[in-house]
Amino acid sequence: MRFLRLQMPLMLTALAGLIPIVAFFMSPDVEWSQWLKDRLERYMVIIASFAILLGVVNVVQSNVRKIERRQKGWPYGATLLFGMLAMATIGILGSFRVGPFQGIGYTPDGGRTPFQWGAEFVFSPLQATMFALLAFFMASAAFRAFRARNLEATILLVAAGVVMLGRIPFGESILGGRPYLAKFTEWLMDWPNAAAQRGIMIGAALGAASLSLRVIVGIERSFLGLEKNE
Amino acid sequence: MDLLNLTRANALLLFILFCTTVLIFIGKARRGGSLFIRRIAGLNAIDEAVGRATELGKKVLYVPGIMSLDENQTIASLAVLGHVARMTARYNTDLDVPNKDPLTFAAARETVKEAYLEEGRPDLYTEAMVHYVTYDQFAYTASVSGIMVREKPAANFLIGSFYAESLLLAETGQTTKAIQIAGTAEIAQLPFFVCACDYTLIGEELYAAGAYLSREPAQLGSIKGQDITKAIVGLYIVIATILLLFGSSHMQDLLKIE
Questions:
Q1: Does A58 touch chain B (CB under 8 A)?
Q2: What tens digit of pLDDT does each residue of B77-128 get?
Q3: CA-CA distance, A47 to A88, in Å (whole number)?
Q4: Within an 8 Å CB–CB cutoff, is residue B160 touching chain A?
Q5: Cα(B106)–Cα(A56) distance, rounded to whole angstroms?
Q6: H/E run at residue A132
Q7: Which among B98, B94, B87 is positioned nearest to B46, based on CA atoms?
């Protein structure tokens, strides 16, 4: 039991962590290391595909429970289940080319199958709507961040003002067509901004490497759901 | 036939240097050596956030990012989730963990279940706490935003790997007046979190979170080893830059890999 719960997951984790490292440092002529790496990547895709089934089962179970108990927001659960079942049914019927459901993409004459219609005229607009909200949220976040409360916030405000003006034609026109702001923007982005970003990136890369090492040697095991002293 | 890819010999040397340093400090920590790790405000605020949710009788929302378990940030996030779940179990506070990735979902469920067992409160754990939403990025964002607006959690944790949804989630959480703790190593998303959240774990702070919260000597030792390597890398960059100013690119060229 202890082997199955503790030792085997840790051994598999170490193995899965070591294979890509070994493959990276091995010569491309060493076929077995590349073969192992490719196999590992394939297994990951297979495992992830099975895991999606687990997710779908959970979505159905949790929403059916919500509807049965008339919990707060149950109509949203009903809508979700309806959408999921409708698209799954149309998709499966399309895959087997049953009746009017001939495929899941475009028909030979360029028309849309019901599945493609649902994806293009229902799903995509909903996705686009969510993404479009970003513009409004960006404006509200900028409004809050750019209040000159202290020295740091004031520097941020000035830098953001310069960068915004430097990226639009209006910035050039207010200086009589001279590209000073654009050049200053370029300098700000390429030097102070890039330096800060690279500092964060170097720290994050070393942090990621350190975490990977902890996972491979079995010190970090929280992702396996194991207790501290297990 | 060469066994090793010699064009990557410099990377291999760096890898060995890094692993040796980290393992030396892990060994030192295990032998009981004293290690100082600086205070990380965002991690200290976790107690405050869960405490606030408990006082208000509202739930804690934990979003473990949108990536799978092959992403280090997700693994770091699960370590923080374990800590948050132990606290919600201790204080009998509701916890909600919506997931986008099915593998992350399975791991998050085990993490939370184990945390409740560890705290001696398996009776408080329910399967509904950790649930799967969808594999689509924006559908997931819509669902989590809906939870924030309708159920108004008192504390939102946005910790892991995030992309375009970072600001959508953080701003929605901000409008609900929840205390927000975010953490990511995605450079492009950090400004959004800094603007919209109360605390942000920046890059390496996220990776150090599990070790910092667990206070386990072996894990803290790895952080120390990582810091020493960072100091060596920093020193190397400074010397290489000075040499470059004098026209020698030798040290810079040494680090190039194919």
A1: yes
A2: 999 999 999 999 999 999 999 999 999 999 999 999 999 999 999 999 999 9
A3: 21
A4: no
A5: 12
A6: helix A124-145
A7: B87
A96 interfacial to chain B (CB closer than 8 Å):
no
Question: Residue A84 has what DSSP assignment?
Answer: H
pLDDT digits 0-9 by tens, B44-83: 999 999 999 999 999 999 999 999 999 999 999 999 999 9
CB-CB contact of B233 with A178 (8 Å): no
DSSP B207-247: HHHHHHHH--HHHHHHHHHHHHHHHHHHHHHHHHHHHHHTT
For tokens 């079942």, what's the residue?
A85
Handedness of CA B247, B250, B251, B255 (dihedral sign): positive
- At residue A5, the pLDDT reads 76
pTM for the full model? Answer: 0.93
Q: For residues A68 and A95, give the distance between their C-alpha atoms in angstroms, rounded to a whole number.
A: 32
In the block, tokens 């503790």 appear at: A6
Q: Which of residues 27-66 of B touch A (CB under 8 A)?
A: none
How many Cβ pairs within 8 Å bridge chains A and B? 204
Helix (H) or strand (E) holding B201: strand B199-202
Predicted confidence (pLDDT) per residue in A116-129, tens digit = 999 999 999 999 99
Shortest CA distance to A22 belongs to which of B39, B97, B82, B12?
B12
- B93 CB-near residues (< 8 Å, 6+ apart): B50, B53, B54, B59, B60, B87
Q: Is B36 left (phi over 0), alpha (psi -120 to 50) or beta?
A: beta
